[in-house]
Design brief:
The chain is an alpha/beta fold. It is about 35% helix and about 15% strand. The strands form three sheets. Strands 8-10-7-11-12-13 form a six-stranded parallel β-sheet, with helices on both faces. A five-stranded parallel β-sheet has the order 3-2-4-5-6, sandwiched between helices. Helix 1 links the parallel strand 2 and strand 3. It starts with 12 loop residues before the first strand and ends with a helix.
Amino acid sequence: MRDAVAPAAGAVHALAAPYLLFLGDATEPGFAKTALGLRDWAGDKCLAEHALPAATVSTGLPRMTPAAAAAAGARSMVIGVANQGGVIPAAWMPELVAAAEAGLDLVAGLHTRLGNMPTLREAAARAGTRLVDVREPPPALPIATGAKRAGRRLLTVGTDCALGKKYTALAIARGLQARGQDATFRASGQTGIMIAGEGIAIDAVVADFAAGAAELLSPANAPTHLDVIEGQGSLFHPSYAAVSLALLHGSQPDLFVVCHQPMRAQILGTPGYRVPSIEAVIEQTIAVGRLTNQAIRCAGVSLNTAGMIEEEAQAAIARTAARLGLPAADPIRGGHAFERLLDACAG
């Protein structure tokens, strides 16, 4: 199997593993979703966890201080908390400074930038470590060329935002890899970047360069190689359609998988906007995707059946597949339906 061709040096964030996961003072699992996602999807990169005494959430990994983790081989401390407002509280600062002084890079995907905090800049400068804000676009991103490049690409798209595009892309990439296929997950959001160890947060890129950034995420590759690209937003979301379109044009996908949550009726955060049908998303994605790939087609559907009992979920999957004449599955539930979806993605 040929190794994947990496994007140009400096074009993506590259993170140093293994990680020490910082849980801060989290008491709700929902606020520690980044750490828990890393545990679930990048367990081989996670060495230990570190938290303040007030924290009650745990990933189940060994607890270590930054110094102990560095001695055990950790190379970065990742802030695994996504708190309200994306801020770095003052109570965290001594632990972040201690991590930098122990020789660990600091990695965050929060709205507050590590690089904007003088105390952390000074600590990192003294120790020769990096402050990596994964929501900060890399420098010198190019404008898209639209030129066709070698290799194959699959993009996850959605009927709405926040319904499983990242999990679907990860599951498809890993499912194909388990079959021996040359496939790579390409991250376009902060948590995906931390899981993959590299990528670009497309939603933080200036609009003129977003499609160019998407081109860098999936560079020219061997003809049989498949890049599985994490989608963002939705072409039908009044707030986030622009980032979805740029990612679609820059990715030039040969295939796409539509992600949908059957129990969701309204687009998140936008009263009066109903979730579109899967058929409408397929039609719109093909219509606008043909600008950079005339051969674009839908490989199947990924259903997020969280909150449904097994019988309801399997019935929804079967109905969707029968109605559309396409493979449909919940990648988290797996099973024969997901194997059929992988068949369609592999071809």
